[in-house]
Amino acid sequence: MLFSRNRYSAPFKDSNQENAAHLLVTPTALADLSKADARTVISFMLLRRVEMGTVLIKEGEVTHTDFMMLILEGEVLVDNEVASMDDSMVMSVIGPGSLIGEMGVLDGAPRSASCTATSDLAVAVLSREALLTLIKSNPAVAARLMLAISKRLSDRLREANRKIRTLGGLSRALQQELNAAHQIKSGVIFGR
Asked: What are the beta bridge partners of residue 125?
């Protein structure tokens, strides 16, 4: 498993832990957590170095889906496969202070997007096992973490719904254009 405890993973040192806690409470991560809560959460995470080009998360993957990561250094490309194409669509490029995989740490379901390191990275990894340990040892902080993750997921769902409405409007407009073009073409062919 890419993010199991191994020679490439390590607990945080104090200076790195404070920086990671600061990044965890940024708007691109979990702004609803307090700084003290963030320090507690970070103490359950492992620091991991990742080489450029590494696929951190693969869309549709069904194994090893039980972790999330906070990007501390570097950038990650997030993309989705497009059903009608042989290519993928870049959803975003994210950097320090961004989270990936938070749905997986909660439900362990297949991944919904792919994430690839576009530079060397430093990440903080929270596994489901570590989350369960946090829940047992500090249920109040764990509850606030779960609420913050839930709010972040709700915000993303609302944004996705807004985009779907926008795409629906564009689709209707394109359909009207196609219908008009078809009527003109039919009128020319059939002498109307």
From this structure: 46, 69
Distance, CA of 46 to chain centre = 18
Residue 152 near residue 70, CB atoms below 8 Å: no
Q: Print pLDDT tens along the chain (192 aa).
A: 455 444 445 666 666 788 888 888 888 788 888 999 999 999 999 999 999 999 999 998 988 889 999 999 999 998 887 655 566 667 778 889 999 999 888 888 888 888 999 999 999 999 999 999 999 999 999 999 999 888 888 887 888 788 888 888 888 888 888 888 877 877 665 555
Please give the Cα distance from 119 to 46 (Å, whole number).
19
Instruction: Decide if 98 contacts 28 (C-beta within 8 A).
Output: yes
pTM: 0.75
